């Protein structure tokens, strides 16, 4: 087995990558192992070729562990898509630390910024040390957001990191183009202004700051024209503090914005979520780190107004690319007229297609595989991927 891809069972995040992998690379060279039990929403992944479910590893914990160890050792190279290992994967890696030297870590964000337990127990301290060791020891780090290159270097005190984003599927572009056409045909002077507040319930989104900025507008004379959408369908399970945070956030939002808010509890299929984004006028993301890039790109492509945290590395990055994005701090004291004025001329629409389409992802991953196999050196792989991104 040439490559073993270890993935969380998420169609939303990985279907486009899997389809690219199976279309553009030899099927026999790439096997996919799901890292945890699959939900009914993602069960369609098992209809694709060369994918094994977590349940397929065996009946009990011991049988699963032995099969994981066998898979790790049989693979020529391992690709971890995100790295938030459960106890069984942590055990397998501790017993087989040599496999880290043939591993590619695809860094999503939360697995670099928020993997630490932050607890006060000896167990939490030990697990944080192990987590740092695993992440620093993987030979081929790959970020999906270009600004995270410098974050990786600073966090793990080493270089050798490459950049290759997950792309938007062609089906997603078709859906967005259809939505744009419908918007142009149905445009009205007076309408409800739909505002998206972040895209999950993690603490690092700083929802409360956004809601406090928007509170005077919702209480003002134009308040009946504002509808807030608060997606909390995931984000309360990884870290203990998130559970109480989401509970308090729901309570505050329901009381303060009872007539102006829709709290969303269910994940949507990809196409349905794109339709939802097409109805949004303004989206606000307040994480101080790389976050929600897929959401942001879709929104910008469809001509929406986007606000990002003043501290977000994506703010300057996207502006340098030619996109129109605004600072969250600009919401402090903003008027309804200022809020709803949209100067996004969609100058970057073609850039989204070129830099975040399937062709770009295929070419970048060709370079990463060639680098891991020793066919090209790191400098060549890095330079080529940067050129692909900026072409």
Describe the protein.
The structure is a single chain. The protein has 391 residues and is an alpha/beta fold. It has two domains: 3-167 and 357-390, Glycogen Phosphorylase B (Rossmann fold, 3-Layer(aba) Sandwich), CATH 3.40.50; 170-354, Glycogen Phosphorylase B (Rossmann fold), CATH 3.40.50. The protein has 16 helices and 13 strands. The strands form two sheets. Strands 3-2-1-4-5-6-7 form a seven-stranded parallel β-sheet, sandwiched between helices. Helix 8 links the parallel strand 8 (193-197) and strand 9. Helix 2 packs across helix 3 (87-95), helix 7 runs parallel beside helix 10 and helix 15 (358-372) runs antiparallel to helix 16 (378-390). The two termini are 34 Å apart.
What number of domains? 2
Q: How many helical elements?
A: 16
CATH architecture of the largest domain: 3-Layer(aba) Sandwich
Shape: globular
Order of helices and strands: EHEEHEHEHHEHEHEHEHEHEHEHEHHHH
Estimate what percentage of residues fall within beta strands: 5-15%
């Amino acid at each position: 087995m040439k490559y073993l891809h270890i993935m969380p069972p998420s169609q939303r995040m990985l279907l486009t990558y899997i389809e690219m992998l199976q279309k553009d690379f030899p099927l026999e060279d790439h096997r996919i192992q799901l890292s945890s039990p699959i939900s009914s929403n993602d069960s369609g992944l098992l209809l694709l070729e060369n994918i094994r479910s977590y349940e397929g590893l065996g009946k009990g914990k011991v049988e699963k562990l032995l099969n994981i160890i066998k898979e790790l050792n049989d693979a020529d190279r391992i690709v971890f898509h995100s790295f938030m290992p459960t106890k069984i994967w942590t055990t397998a890696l501790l017993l087989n630390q040599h496999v880290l030297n043939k591993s590619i870590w695809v860094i999503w964000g939360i697995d670099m910024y928020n993997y630490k337990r932050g607890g006060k127990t000896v167990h939490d301290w030990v697990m944080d040390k192990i987590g740092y060791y695993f992440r620093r020891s993987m030979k081929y780090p790959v970020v999906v957001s270009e600004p995270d290159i410098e974050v990786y270097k600073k966090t793990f005190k080493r270089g050798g990191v490459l950049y290759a984003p997950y792309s938007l599927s062609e089906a997603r572009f078709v859906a967005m183009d259809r939505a744009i056409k419908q918007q142009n045909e149905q445009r009205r002077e007076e309408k409800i202004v739909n505002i998206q507040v972040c895209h999950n319930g993690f603490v690092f989104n700083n929802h409360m700051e956004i809601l406090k900025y928007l509170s005077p507008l919702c209480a003002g004379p134009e308040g009946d024209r504002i509808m807030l959408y608060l997606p909390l369908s995931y984000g309360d399970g990884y870290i203990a503090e998130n559970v109480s945070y989401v509970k308090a956030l729901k309570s505050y939002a329901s009381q303060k914005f009872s007539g102006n808010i829709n709290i969303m509890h269910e994940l949507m299929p990809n196409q349905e979520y794109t339709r939802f984004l097409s109805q949004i006028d303004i989206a606000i993301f307040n994480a101080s780190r790389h976050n929600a890039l897929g959401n942001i790109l879709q929104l910008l492509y469809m001509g929406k107004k986007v606000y990002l945290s003043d501290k977000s590395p994506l703010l300057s990055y996207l502006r340098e690319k030619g996109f129109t994005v605004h600072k969250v701090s600009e919401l402090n004291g903003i008027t309804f007229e200022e809020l709803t004025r949209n100067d996004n001329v969609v100058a970057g629409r073609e850039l989204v297609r070129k830099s975040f389409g399937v062709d770009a992802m295929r070419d970048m991953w060709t370079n990463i595989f060639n680098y891991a196999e020793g066919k090209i050196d790191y400098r060549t792989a890095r330079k080529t991927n940067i050129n692909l991104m900026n072409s």
